[in-house]
Amino acid sequence: xAQDKPAxxxxxxxxxxxxxxxxxxxxxxxxxxxxxxxxxxxSWQTFIxxxxxxxxxxTPDTNLTIGQAPNDPVVWQSYRESRSIFLPDGATPAPxxxxxPPPAVCKNIDAKHLPAGTLRLTQVGKTPNVLDxxxxxxxxxxxxxxxxQYTRFSIMTNQAMFTYIVNNKLYSKQGQKLxxxxxxxxxxxxxxxxxGSIMIKTAWVKMGxxxxxxxxxxxxxxxxxxxxxxxxxxxxxxxxxxxLVGFHIGHKTQDEPQWVWSTFEHVDNxxxxxxxxxxxxxxxxxxxxxxxxxxxxxxxxxxxxNRYTKPSQVERVIPITTEAQQxxxxxxxxxxxxxxxxxxxxxxxxxxxxxxxxxxxxxPTGVPAPSFLxxxxxxxxxxxxxxxxxxxxxxxxxxATTTNGNFSDFTYLLQRAQ
Length: 418
Description:
Layout: H1 32-50, E1 80-81, E2 119-121, E3 152-157, H2 159-167, H3 173-179, E4 198-206, E5 218-225, E6 236-251, E7 260-266, H4 322-338, E8 347-355, E9 368-369, H5 393-397
Parallel strand pairs: 2-5
Antiparallel strand pairs: 1-3, 3-4, 4-6, 5-6, 6-7, 7-8, 8-9
Helix pairs in contact: 1-4
């Protein structure tokens, strides 16, 4: 586990299952630095609430606290996986709360006896013909873990976002054509105590080999290979125990129509460029490899069905700030006070991107701070400080459109409509 910087003597953060609807401004007048801290607190509060143990209907179980019942589903696992929304031929998705049948290739697995919260994982990168989830316009490719296996990804939407898509028939090309307007997903409204749209991207590695399940939040997933994503891929489906390595949250609020982008990682994912490696082993970096190309996609052809692929060598390009490290330490203390061996001690906030001028007349991205934000598992190969090249959540997602060219409100999901 990474070493936290000592926290201050201030009271520990309160752990609550309530998703915050807006930041709490702690300094008057606020500064850029104080607001960054306020947004980072907002991110941690959201992370805690979404990973709270859940009841069978997906609501938080208030009889438990985060870190307890570690093998049970958490709140966000009740969200809708994007592939169950955008169906072949633009079919209407099943209602919220209804179980989504597994892919046909998984027909030999008894769906009635799947563990609670079982995920469906097929995404293996962020390039359209490997990961057909998005058309994001940057260099990318699959991420190979230290066992030589493909990292898997999932995108989930909460009920507010799902309902907007369904009510406006944005799940189909025909529906988007009839809608023929910019998308405008509902935003969280603190004055009305109303939760708005939340989108979650997660990254997972298969447990076993070099990965100890006790160090990860784990769940079970139907891990399947989709031949439509890459020539040569054979369809397959396996029920696997997987561990969480990346967790990215987009949350639209009234004051932040460009959304608040919060990104978390497993503490053992990668070292920071220019700093000495402090761990004997990382999730996506081999300290003993002297000639490994760093932050480069694996060579084609890409096939998740291969028994072994040379692991990726990834470093963090932009260091986690001292202030974020101190906040991580404070939340880790709070998590340990609640559950001493909490698995969530193995996760840390990288940073939060937010609009400094949400109503800017010249910058539709709202002048984001920080200018760049990357999750080492989700934007592994586009980290850095180069405009229009390096990862910036708002700059990238501002380019997203529907299938007929209208603005899709900072999400590429609507491009998946058929």
